[in-house]
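Hi V.,

You were right to ask for the full record rather than a summary. Here it is.
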Amino acid sequence: MRKDLPKIKKGFSMIELIIVIAVLGVLTAVVLNQSQKMRESSNISRESSNLNMLATAIQSTFNSQGNYTGLNESVIKSTNAFPAAMDGSGDDIDSVWNSGDVSVEAVDYSSGSNAAFSIVYGDVPQTSCVDFVSNNYSTFYFVDVDGTTLHNKEPGQTDVTFNIGTLVTACGGGSGTVEVEFRSR
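Predicted structure:
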């Protein structure tokens, strides 16, 4: 007489499958989050480099003139020193975030008319604002985010010392964009 052997289960139970799917979902979320952070960090680094190359191009182009009279997007784009990564269509200057959102112009400084220049980013993502500004403010005598002056070292003006708390508030924490202005001589 033959005894019935117990049935051997093949495959996974429903609970085991649910647990595996949940673990895979969590891992996928972590990987996607980290990749987004790495992408944004890379964008900030590239745009910081572009900003400094643009400022250097402006300074070298207008150095012999003694002021920045006549500075505009078309003039600076026509120089050999203009950063190729910022070259948009027509007279547009692009950032890593948006097309045509960067503008340049001569501005007055305590030493005279058109004695300095301004580089304005019209659409910096709020998620990048704090790192972008804190990486670059020390190169410029004036920095403003959406109308809040964060740094001002112009002689004869109210001295504003950079404060990270003020920067965080000015940049906001949402998913929108802010305008950031840098000024140099």
